[in-house]
Amino acid sequence: MADIVIYALLDSHRKVRYVGKATKLDKRIYAHRRTKPWFRSWTILEWTTSEAWEERERYWIAYYRKGGLFNKSSGGGSGCEFTMELEGRRKISESNRRRQHPHGWHHTEAAKEAISRAHLGHHRGGWKFPKEGCEKISRALKGRVFTPEWRKKISEAAIKRCIREKALKVGRWS
Questions:
Q1: Is 49 helix (H, G, I), strand (E, B) or coil?
Q2: 55-79 burial by CB neighbour count: b if 16+ within 10 A, else e?
Q3: Model pLDDT for residues 73-91, shown as the tens digit of each residue
Q4: Packing angle between helix 25-35 and helix 148-170, nearest 10 degrees?
């Protein structure tokens, strides 16, 4: 059964820049959106089985390699061909040394004050709708009959909105 997808990430010129594999494509694409600033869209190259995915990923990486692929390894999940430069190791080491505190990063006093000022008036539940606004809506809806046609129209609009939000989350935007 084909349960693994081999996918490609494309840049703004619709050029394949990265080839990868995933079992949960939506979560993987969402993760890429945060780490790859050039990433604009994606496409599925093929579905494959858990026995054959390494070979198929290597094939697609080799196929697109001449076009300027950003993959550091030749695929197949090993990643062993990639060796980091000494400068990169030094930077990571310095960054990790700053994170020795068991509770993570701490804000400066000035940052704490700025955050406090930014949250003034905001309560735990977020922004509160004004009482006058609630009363106005309540008066407007009192006695209103919601017909089956109206309910169906509202339901369809909500479904379309959910699908649109899901598509944006996954990464199909222009």
A1: coil
A2: ebbbbbbeebeeeebebeeebbeee
A3: 777 765 555 566 788 788 8
A4: 60
